[in-house]
């Protein structure tokens, strides 16, 4: 039986309830009698459902042996004797050793979020960063500082590589200072990172700079990202630079497909996803370029069991049965001469517009001076 067949036989609601239990990580054992109502079945059908789920691999089915008198669990070797090694009662006097079936979830313990760095995109002040910081502070029962990194409102400088490197170097310097400050305040763990748009490009530029090889990161959330879909995350993880990456894609993100034509070294990963096996790609059909930072969506993603909450705090296996998880096709950038031609055209157009604007405002300024001169002599 497959998971699809499990849904067909027992219904999507029951399977989704089980997956939610797994994702929560709050319990490792299911009692069929106590949990029957949560799956919408009677106890007997719940056992059949859990047996089938064990066959699929969602739960683990174990048989345990118990003394009918204690009734404590005993080892198989102890069950072969006449007396219980714990209470010394004879098994035969109570009807023999009891056999019980135990269902255990394949869950992993939760992970603490040490601290977080958030980096915004270009042509924006990153207002979402404050909302994220406030909700992260209210979400956790312990202190997890949030470093809001702002590199200023930029527009035209995203078109040139040397400016990328310069800004990535500034980012690395700021992060290194923050890491040292965190360690001085007894937070030795590497920070998690939330990236948006051009901020994601600065982050991978930083990872490529040997001068910042000492910087280590935890889990990385990339939303509205313009990193190339074929980026080698596995290499970075094997180098110990980061722990895991989550790409939150939006089907209605119309901005990123054009990034490769205007911003050198970028690609449409927010629409395409990452082809690297190490990346977790989740697609939201209704998301635009910054929809995940809308207040309602931000709250849902950070809520207990939300996508970002699960990525930051749970084991990646909690995404194994996520319906929005996808594996992208192979991506290749547009032919380099075409990209270069478009970029040169855009730069030339901006230069013409800048020259026109300069001439226009200069003429207005000179006209104003002339008018003042006439007025003063009149």
UniProtKB/TrEMBL annotation:
UniProt KW keywords: Membrane, Transmembrane, Transmembrane helix
Keyword field contains Transmembrane helix: yes
Membrane-spanning ranges: 341-366
Name recorded for this polypeptide: Alpha/beta hydrolase
Domain of life: Bacteria
């Amino acid at each position: 039986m497959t998971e699809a067949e499990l849904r067909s036989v027992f219904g999507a609601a029951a399977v989704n309830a089980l997956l939610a239990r797994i994702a929560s990580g709050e319990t490792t054992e299911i009692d069929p009698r106590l949990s029957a109502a949560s799956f919408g079945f009677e106890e007997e059908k719940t056992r059949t459902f859990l047996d089938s789920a064990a066959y699929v691999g969602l739960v683990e089915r174990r048989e345990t042996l118990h003394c009918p008198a204690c009734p404590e669990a005993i080892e198989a070797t102890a069950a072969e004797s006449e007396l219980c090694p714990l209470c010394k009662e004879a098994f035969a006097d109570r009807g023999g050793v009891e056999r019980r079936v135990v269902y255990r979830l394949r869950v992993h313990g939760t992970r603490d979020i040490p601290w977080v760095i958030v980096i915004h995109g270009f042509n924006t002040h990153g207002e979402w960063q404050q909302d994220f910081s406030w909700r992260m502070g209210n979400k956790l029962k312990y202190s997890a500082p949030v470093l809001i990194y702002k590199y200023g409102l930029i527009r035209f400088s995203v078109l040139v590589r040397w400016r990328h490197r310069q800004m990535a170097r500034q980012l690395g310097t700021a992060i290194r200072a923050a890491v040292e400050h965190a360690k001085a305040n007894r937070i030795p763990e590497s920070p998690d990172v939330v990236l948006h748009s051009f901020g994601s490009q600065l982050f991978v530029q930083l990872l490529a700079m040997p001068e910042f090889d000492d910087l280590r990161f935890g889990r990385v959330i990339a939303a509205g990202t313009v990193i190339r879909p074929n980026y080698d995350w596995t290499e970075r993880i094997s180098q110990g630079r980061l722990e895991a990456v989550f790409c939150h894609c939006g089907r209605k993100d119309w901005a990123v497909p054009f990034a490769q034509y205007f911003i050198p070294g970028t690609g449409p990963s927010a629409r395409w996803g990452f082809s690297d096996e190490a990346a977790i790609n989740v697609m939201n059909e209704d998301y635009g370029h910054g929809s995940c930072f809308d207040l309602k969506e931000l709250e849902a993603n950070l809520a207990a069991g939300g996508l970002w909450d699960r990525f930051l705090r749970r084991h990646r296996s909690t995404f194994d049965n996520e319906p929005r998880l996808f594996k992208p096709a192979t991506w290749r950038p547009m032919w380099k001469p075409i990209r270069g031609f478009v970029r040169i055209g855009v730069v030339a157009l901006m230069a013409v517009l800048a020259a026109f604007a300069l001439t226009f405002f200069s003429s207005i300024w000179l006209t104003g001076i002339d008018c003042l001169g006439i007025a003063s002599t009149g």
